[in-house]
Every structure is written in C-alpha cells, then in structure tokens.
Design goal:
The complex is a heterodimer of chains A (about 375) and B (about 170). By secondary structure, chain A is mostly helical. Chain A contains 14 helices and 2 strands; from the N terminus they run ααααααααααααββαα. The chains are: A mainly alpha (about 375), B mainly beta (about 170). At the A-B interface, helix 10 of A face helix 1 of B.
Chain lengths: ~375, ~170
C-alpha cells in the first residue's frame, strides 16, 4: 500500500512536470549579445516555440493549402524568398519584398513602412488574413483553419502543452502567439563579424572586410547612421533597454517620379499609412545581417546586387533613365539628408561588400532548430 | 581606476544611440591606426603631440558604459590630464574668462565635436571623459581607434568621437 502511494505520487509529479511549460532559453545567443525583449503577455516556452515552428511551416495556414509562412521566409535565404516582390498563395504580387525574419525579435517596428506594427503577434495576422494583397489568403475569422489544425495529432498534443491554462487552446490568437514565439528564437549572432567583434578573433574576417567596416562607420559614407547598432538596422529593442527605439524611416532617393507622388503609387512607404506628403518614399532600414543572401534588394527588389546598392548610395540616389519610373532620385524632395552621396573607388566597394558578406551567419542559416519540423530530417521535434 | 557604474547606468537609461554607432574615419591603410598620435593645440601654452606610448605612461582611468545590454570598459587617460599638460587653464586657473573656453575634438574623417572646457576639468566636474586606447582590455577596433574620446555620462554617443586625432582649445575671452 505504501509502495502504491509512492508510485502514485511519482506519477502525479511526472504529469505535473509534463504539463508545466518549460521556459525557453536562447541557445544560439552568446552571453555578451543582447537578449530579445519578450512581451509579458506571451512568455516564451519550449512548448510554444515548438508549436509555432510547426505552424510556421504548415500550409494549413493558407486558404488554398499551398503556402506557409516559410514559403516567403526560407531559412537558407535568411528567411526571405529571393524574389523582389513576394507572391501570395493566389498569385497576387505584393508591392514589396518579404523581409528577413532573422533577428526580428530585436525590431522596434515591423514591416517596411508601418510604424504601428510593433508586435509580431499582431503582424502575423496581416499575411494570414490580409487581402491587400492576398498573401496566405485565410478566410476570416479563421474557423476553417482552426478546424483543420484540430484534426492533426501533432497539434492535439502541442496546443494544450503550449497553452495549458486555456479550456480550448485552438484560437487564432494562440496561433499568432506561437508563431511570434518561434520567430523570436531566430537569432543571428554568430557571423564571422561577430567572432571578430565579440570574441576578438582578429582572423575571423578579412583585411578587406575590416577596411569595409571602417568605411561603413565613416562620416562621409555614414551607412551606420541608418543601419546602426548590433543589428545594423533601424530602431532596435532588447531586454533591459530602458527606452525602446523609435521607429525610423528613410527616403533614400530610390525614385523621383514627376507628379504629386515621387514614388511609384503602389509603393509610397509610410505615406500609405500616414498620408503625410513628407512620408512619401520613407521605408525602414532593414537589418544588414545576412544581407548577402537576401537579394534582390530595397523594398521592391529593384536592385539586384549589393554592388549596385552601393552605387545607388554613392550617387546619393538612383537615376532611372527610362520607363514609367524615370527620374533622378538624387533630387527627390523627401530624400534623407544622410543620403548625400560619396566618392567610392572600385576597391572600396569591394571592401564594403566584403564587410557586408562577413555579416552572414552560416550557423543560423543552417540551424536545425529553425528548420522545417515536418521533414523527416527534423523528426526529433515531433514528440512534443 | 575609477569605476563609473553609476555613470554607465545613467547612460543606459537614456541611450538612444549605441556608442558603436558613431561617425568614424575613412579607411586608412591596415596597421596605420597603430601609428597614430593625438595633437593638442589651439590656445594652450604647451602644444603637444602624444603617441600611444605617451598615453600608456600617463595616469589611467577606466570608465564603464552600457552598450545594448552589456557593459563595456574603456581604459585611457582623462582629457583633463592631457589638457593640463598642454597648459590649458584648469583647476585653480578655471574661472573668470577661462570658463568661456571650449575644446574642439576632430576625428580622422573630419567629424568634429565640442566640449566646454569646464566639463573636461576634473577639478570642476566628476564627469570623467577620457581618451581611450583599449576596450575591455584590448586595443580598440580599427574603425574606432587607435584613440577614442569616451564621454560616459552623455545620454547619446555622438560625442564619443572615434579615430580621435586632435584637440584644440579655443578661448573666447582672453
């Protein structure tokens, strides 16, 4: 009888442990690198991250079951898709390109040009249910998607473990919470540049890359003024920061169309949200981490290579000589005063590209923890 | 060593720019930075040129700043100490017309910042602004050094000028 009681107690304790979510820790972040800030209403747990990873790679999250989040956010491309403009599940072409999700946990604002998008949980709803353009193409209010998820054994196990306090965890809000939690795990902090900068391994990057770093941080080029901080991006946020970064947007003189709007009318930047004329052409400075694998570049993929991007900035704005978008970007009335142009030799351009290439994090791009859990090679995650 | 943790926390409280994100110089030839020197001139009685070894031999001060969630130690020499050796009016001489003076700091790439002379005088303020030559015990990175002026109490890093080359005293009233 006594042995039976002990046995019952042990089993009960085991069940309790199994039902208590395990707090998530970032195994891929070095100790001297900033930690992401986690919203108080969506704490990170191992179970939730696992659920989010399955959802991220699940085509049940598109209306016609042809696309998942990962369709436009491929790990090998630093969670972009290699397209200048993303293509949705119904073939609709997005005016802008899929942004990298690497280090998105540090972004003070999300998307190319919407200052009000600051939470991954909220942003996930846009590709899921948005119709301008249609991306994943789910029908509101998501009942069909949730019903499809209920029929999957993996989710029958994962949903209750990720949200143990919920009578019915199958909700759209929980789907976005889990996806956001997974996205916050995708941290890149082990590039060659990081080994050089944080580990002080002077041999980690080439002499060319070191010269490029000096150019990047130089007053004449001032690349760092928009792509700043440890994430080489617009405003960042992280755990412990007393003041969150304010969203920043810049008109780089990519276009200068004649007429009231100086940018193509389907891609006017923050103006699309604010309707303030001086916001025309203002877009976010994305992270430059892994930038070498995320071409084509700019918000609309209109520049094919990093070398040509540098030409654009060296000229202080791009000149489009023909077609509907012709114009001298250098003279765009909204152009940032930081984008003034600068002399750049061929050798210096190579140095800068070498520096940018040193920001590629091979470990993150191949990290199995960010990979598709539904594939046979990732079966280790399916028990959860 | 003067640990300035309080200063670091103050800087962290309101930092909107990382110290990393400062204007710097055009790329010099590799290794050129190590041979650098700082000139101290303008309205001083004893203009100086200080080498890296000169700075190493002077009284050292360490300041701690918070950058993006981690604390970083810069070690170097108080700017006030350097100015004193150049004959700038500091200490008992700081007062009267000398208060209307400023120091123009220039970087290799042309970036410039200004400090009032009193805010660089250890007898006048407890704000330890240093000319740093090491970061966490190692030489500064090429894009920072060989010398960086570090102002740990500033809420933003824009005056912590990298690739510092010269300090010039300007006395507005003589």
């Amino acid at each position: 009888m006594r042995l039976l009681a002990i046995g019952v107690a042990l089993v009960s304790a085991a069940i309790a442990r199994a039902q208590t979510p395990v707090p998530w820790v970032w195994p891929s972040i070095p100790s001297n690198f900033a930690r992401p800030r986690v919203p108080a209403d969506n704490p990170m747990t191992v179970e939730k991250v696992s659920l989010g990873r399955h959802l991220f790679y699940d085509t049940r999250l598109s209306g016609n079951r042809t696309q998942s989040c990962a369709t436009c956010h491929e790990q090998a491309r630093a969670f972009t898709d290699g397209k200048g403009r993303a293509v949705g599940s119904t073939g609709a072409v997005h005016p802008r390109g899929a942004m990298s999700l690497v280090n998105v946990a540090y972004a003070a604002s999300l998307t190319w040009a919407n200052p009000s998008q600051t939470r991954l949980e909220d942003q996930a709803l846009v590709p899921m249910f948005g119709d301008h353009p249609v991306e994943l193409g789910l029908a509101q209010p998501g009942s069909a998607m949730l019903a499809a998820l209920r029929r999957v054994d993996v989710y029958q196990r994962l949903m209750p473990r990720a949200f143990p306090g919920d009578a019915d965890p199958f909700t759209v809000a929980n789907v976005t919470r889990a996806i956001a939690a997974f996205e916050r795990t995708i941290v890149s902090a082990r590039s060659s540049y990081d080994r050089y900068h944080y580990d002080r391994d002077d041999s980690a990057i080439s002499a060319e890359a070191k010269r490029g770093e000096q150019l990047f941080f130089s007053q004449p080029l001032s690349c760092f003024r928009c792509h700043n901080g440890f994430n080489f991006s617009g405003a960042t946020d992280f755990a412990g920061r007393r003041e969150g970064g304010s969203p920043e947007y810049h008109n780089t003189g990519l276009y200068n169309l004649a007429g009231a709007l100086s940018y193509p009318p389907d891609n006017t930047g923050v103006y699309e949200v604010s309707r303030r004329p001086d916001d025309v052409g203002r877009f976010k400075a994305p992270t430059l981490r892994n930038i070498a694998v995320t071409g084509p570049y700019m918000h609309d993929g209109s520049i094919a290579t990093l070398s040509e991007v540098l030409d654009h900035y060296a000229a202080g704005g791009r000149t489009v000589v023909q077609g509907p978008n012709r114009g001298v970007g250098h003279d765009n009335p909204n152009k940032s005063p930081i984008v003034r142009g600068f002399p750049l030799t061929a050798d210096q351009k190579r140095d800068l590209v070498a520096f940018l290439e040193a920001l590629t994090d091979v470990e993150a791009l191949g990290d199995s923890r960010f990979a598709n859990p539904w594939l046979a090679s990732s079966q280790e995650d399916r028990w959860r | 060593m003067i640990g300035r943790r309080g200063a670091a926390l103050a800087a962290m409280a309101a930092a909107t720019l990382s110290l990393m994100a400062q204007p710097a110089a055009q790329a010099p030839a590799p290794g050129a930075a190590a041979a650098g020197a700082i000139t101290v001139g303008g309205d001083v009685t004893k203009p100086l040129s200080l080498s890296a070894d000169d700075l190493k031999a002077m009284p050292r001060t360490t300041v701690t700043v918070s950058e993006e969630g981690r604390e970083i130690k810069y070690d170097g020499v108080l700017v006030g100490e350097v100015l004193k050796r150049a004959g700038a009016p500091l200490g008992r001489d700081m007062g009267g017309q000398a208060v209307a003076s400023y120091v123009l700091a220039k970087a290799k790439d042309g970036y410039q910042v200004v400090f009032s002379l009193p805010e660089l005088d250890p007898a006048f303020t407890s704000n330890d602004i240093i000319i740093a030559d090491t970061i966490d015990g190692k030489p500064l990175f090429d894009y920072q050094g060989p010398f960086r002026l570090v102002a740990p109490h500033d809420k933003r890093g824009a005056r912590s000028i990298r690739m510092l080359q010269s300090l010039d005293l300007v006395r507005l009233r003589k």
